[in-house]
Amino acid sequence: MRTTKLSTTAGLLGACALTALLGAGTAVAGSGDSGSSGDDRAPTEAGTSFRTAQEVQQGLRATADASTGDYLYWSVPADAGQRPTVKATVKLPDSAARPSGATWRIDVYDGLRRRQSCMYGTQSRAAAQDATSVGLSCTLRTVRAWSEQWANDPLPGTYYVRLTAAVMTPSDQGLPVSAEVEVTSKEVGGSSAVDGSLAAPLVPGSTTQEAAAASDDASADASDEKNGSSASQALATGEPEDGWSSGWWSDRWVWTAAGGILAALAGIGGYALTRGTGRPSRVPPGL
Questions:
Q1: Which burial class, exposed, middle or buried, applies to 91 when counting CB atoms under 10 A from its CB (0-12, 13-18, 19+)?
Q2: CA 287, CA 280: separation in Å to the nearest integer?
Q3: DSSP code of 141?
Q4: Residues 47-73: what's their mean pLDDT?
Q5: CA-to-CA distance for 8 and 2, rounded, in angstroms?
């Protein structure tokens, strides 16, 4: 009877562990690269500085017509646990009208305007004489929910993409080009999770607007109410479609729970194998 009960308990625990593992597998499988959503909200022009950068959501392809020598800026939100990849394509004019090939380059800056290094990708490329387009890419490090003040780790917030011709001759300057930029992210998950989170994402201008709203209020109650509305409006600019994550949840919780269930199952199985069958029938009860 005891063996039957232990077998039933072990079976239930095994089913729970299998359910947890399947749930974790589904979460991991659903956190792949974000593709194009087919939305038509992508901007068709670019800014010329950090302040005028055109906002674009991840997965949308932004386009712009410009001239060689222009600085093109876009801004995109990136949240904790994401590994953004920036891809840019510059379509060049006819080679007959292009005397030499310029060198194109993309740079990515965070909300504090710190330049972020690329893990891999072709960040800079010279256009061949007969080339019709130039492709560039930059995969950033995984965005962390929290970091030391002295570190240059990517943090949640707004990221700026700058595309320009880094090296060119005077004859190249002013030639018409068209640019396409798309940012996608891979959800890395709990492997990059940290114990901590920022008080607020690094969205430029949110602190300034909140302080200005507080100074304009006459009473404390009115000040609190206005601060809340102003902060929400400021942080809504450049915010991901699903909102900013809190930073405390990751799939490590699922794997930890599944590991605990498997450990309990192993302990019960080991006990069932080593406890024996009880008192032998040849031994008197008094002994």
A1: middle
A2: 11
A3: P
A4: 95
A5: 10
